[in-house]
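Class, look over these structure tokens:
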Amino acid sequence: MSLFDWLAAALLLIGSIFALTGSIALLKLPDFFMRLHGPTKSTTLGVGALVIGSMLYFSTRGDGISVHELLITIFLFMTAPVSANMLAKAAMHQKLRRVKRTRGEPWEQ
């Protein structure tokens, strides 16, 4: 096994752990605002590491750099924070129920 194989395996393992952690957070956290935090932070990082590990592996096995996987990663990191922000703003606009532990107060207009 080459150094690139070990690096790809490490990225796949790290990405899997982050994706699992984000999925468990989505399941276990009590309200919408806390549940939004898990997938947007750790699951995005996990899927990004998985795709980068896949890109590294197939780039060393194929004809060259796997550009489409790089584009997927860039698109993922650009859209996940924006969509989470839009979901949080919509939930604040709808005055969604929150638990007491949820930090931050939406500002009133």
